Amino acid sequence: MPLSPPPLDARRHADLVAQALARIPVHTPEWTHLNPSDPGVALVDVFAFLTETLLYRLNQVPEANRRKFLSLLGIPLRAAVSARGLVAFTNELPDAKTVTLPRDLELGAGPVKYRTALGLDVLPVEAQALAKLRVANPRPELKARYRDLYASFLGANAEAEPDLYETTPLAADGPPIDLDATVDDSLWIALLLRATDRPTENKPSAWAALRTARRAELAGKTLTLGLLPVLRDASQVLGPAPTGAASTRNKLEFQMPQVPPNALLPDAAAQRGATYRTLESLNADDLLARPGIVQLRLPDQADDLRLWENLEPLEAGADEFPPALLDPAQEQRVVTWLRVRTAPNVPAAFQWAGINAALVEQRARITDEALPNGNGEPDQTCRLQHAPLIAESVRIRVHTAADVSSWLPVDDLLAAGAEVTVADSQTPPGTPPAKPAPSERFTVEAESGEVRFGDGFHGRRPPRSALLRAEYDATAGREGNVPAGAIKQGNLPAGLKVTNPVRTWGGAEAETEAEAELTIPRQLRHRDRLVSAEDFRDVAWRAPGIELGRAEVLSAWRPTASNDEPGAEAGAVTLLVIPRRDSEQPDAPRPDRLFLETLCRHLEPRRLVTTELCVRGPEYVGIWISVGLSVVPGASSATAREAVKQALLEHLSPLPPPVADPAAPLPAGGWPLRKPVVDRELLAVVARVANVLAVNELLLARDGGTVAQATLPMKRLQLPRVLGIAVTEGSATPLAALQGRGPAATGGGRPPRFVPVPVLPREC
Question: What is the number of structural domains in the chain?
Answer without folding.
Answer: 4
